[in-house]
Amino acid sequence: MRRLTLFWRFVLALLLFTALILALWFGYHLITLASYTQIAKENAQLAAGRLLDQVSAEFSQMRSIAGVIAGSSHVQEFLLADTVEMHFKSAGNASEIVRNAAYPNLPASNVVTINTAGSYYRFMGGISNSACEALRLIVHETGTLYTIVELDGVLFFCYSEPVYMVSGQMPSRVGTVVLLTHLNRKRTALGGQDALPGMDTAVIQDSIIILSSAEELEGMPDEALSSGYGLVSRITIEGTNLSVAAAVANESMFPGRPLFLMTSVVLLFIMLIAIGSLYQYLSRYIVKPMASVIDGVASLSGELRGRLRELPVIGKHDFEALVHAINGMLDRTEEYSDELMGERQKLFDAEILRRDLRISLLNSQIDAHFLFNTITTIHDLSARGDHENASRMADGLAQIVKHRYNGDKPCNLFFEFEMIGQYIDIMNIWHKNKFKVEYDVDDRLADYIIPGLILQPVVENALIHGLQNKDGDAKLHIRGYTDGDSIILDVSDNGCGISPGDLRNLSKALEMTESRDFPEPGLSGVALTNIHRRIRLRHGESYGLSVSSAPGEGTTVTIRLPATPDGVRGQGSGLGIRGPRPEIW
Length: 585
Known about the structure:
Blueprint: H1 6-71, H2 73-80, H3 84-102, E1 110-115, E2 120-124, H4 129-142, E3 146-151, E4 154-167, E5 170-182, H5 183-190, E6 199-205, E7 208-212, H6 223-228, E8 231-236, E9 242-248, H7 250-253, H8 257-300, H9 317-384, H10 387-403, E10 410-412, H11 413-431, E11 435-441, E12 448-451, H12 455-467, E13 474-483, E14 486-493, H13 500-512, H14 527-539, E15 544-550, E16 554-562, E17 564-565, E18 577-580
Parallel strand pairs: 11-13
Antiparallel strand pairs: 1-2, 1-5, 3-4, 4-5, 6-7, 6-9, 8-9, 10-12, 11-18, 12-17, 13-14, 14-16, 15-16
């Protein structure tokens, strides 16, 4: 995944910061708005409750006054009067009762009594006889306690209270007391001083709004309040089928809501402008110059020879010192690097010379060891008078020396086998064809090269130390194959083997060759350690030589070399070797 640049990481961080600020702002806005709305709702409920208590008290007062009048014995006698004399005789007492009950708290503008015979009498108010007759019919037909009637072209709120007189054990109805209040006065009472702007009150009877401060609601079902207002408070007048309700519109509960919303939007706009200004400032004067410096450093790609360019962006003055400091550091680093590279080159040249010297000493030691043994053998043959074989050994030695002139330079693997064949022939001349050699080499090894002078010392070591003292059946088995990216060469003999103690000493000697800068002096016991050391010096610790042996069973020397392809094939035989090696003389 490609990493974002500094500029885009800055933009992403600023966007996340803006989103967080907006989330906090909206959260604060919603919480504050909900809190203000709840407070406004509680205030509206409180105002509605006070208003409803007043309205309910007024309606209860009408009911109480009507009850006092209806319960008076003088009023009952007045309604029972069946002669004109009795009627006028009891009218004074009944009028006194009505005045005492109604004044000064009666919220009614008319008080009318109607007896069971249909006769009516006006104690208060000035409605006409025809209005009284219409009122008598309404009360007689409907028997409604609360209703709205139109009399003399005027709307009245009407409350009627039946009058009963107890005679014997059963009460009997003797008439009705009717209280009339102008409807506009009732509407005024519904919109009292505790009413909030946008608050409407209503009187509800049997789920129908019969009176309201909003005239358009009269005659509608009470569901109109629930659907058209945000808050509805309702109280039932005790002992009646009436209830009064106060309904408050949403916008009236929180009158400052539009101002609050407008203020919030203005603050949000100012905040966004501030964030945009912050983005412009940071981008132009900090982020872009810093990104330019980072891109300049990245463009150097680790090269000491490069330099940062002047910043082609606004705000560069704040970063010019940084650019000059980096360029100065690059100058000083380049100077130090040149000095360091010179010293390292000297050390490298010295190490190469030292390694070549060590390898040359190893090769010269191996060459001297081989020449010493061969010349000794030729001398012994000549001393015995076997001049023919001495001559053959001298010719073979000449060919070997001619081949070994190139030292340990890489050569084709099968060319090295030719060298081994020459050496074994020389040894068989001396030991009268005592040694039998078998080859088991993979044909594919003809495609690889190995360092020269690797196999011959190992074979020499096997013939001299492993098989020379064996009476008969002295066999040497040479095996070659690949193992991944390595070449494995096994040289096995069926000689006397090596004792465990000597094998430990040999393994220790191989390990100690790693800590010696130069080979030990002398010509004896150096073949295996020098080969191991040469391989490690050239190819590293993954390669080298190992020895396994058991007394009386023989010894196997294993050589591990890197599989290096031969760029020019044909130096050797180019064919795989199987079975015993044929005579080459």
